[in-house]
Amino acid sequence: MGTVGGGTVNVLTRNAEEIARRAGRGIVVTHAAARDINKPRICDTTNITLTTTPQDVVNDPDVQIVIELIGGDTLARELVMAAIANGKHVVTANKALIAKHGNEIFAAAQKQGVVVAFEAAVAGGIPIIKALREGLAGNRVEWLAGIINGTGNFILTEMRDNGSDFGDVLAEAQRLGYAEADPTFDVEGIDAAHKLTILASIAFGIPLQFEACYTEGITKITREDIVYAEELGYRIKHLGVARRTDAGVELRVHPTLIPERRLIANVDGVMNAVLVKGDAVGPTLYYGAGAGADPTASAVVADVVDVVRTLTSDPENRVPHLAFQADSLSDLPILPMAAVETAYYVRLQCEDKPGVLANVASILGNSEISIEAILQKEPVGNAPATIILLTHRVNEGKMNQAISTIEGLEAVIGDVMRIRLEHLDAD
Ligand code: HSE
Question: Does residue 133 share a domain with residue 121?
Answer without folding.
Answer: no
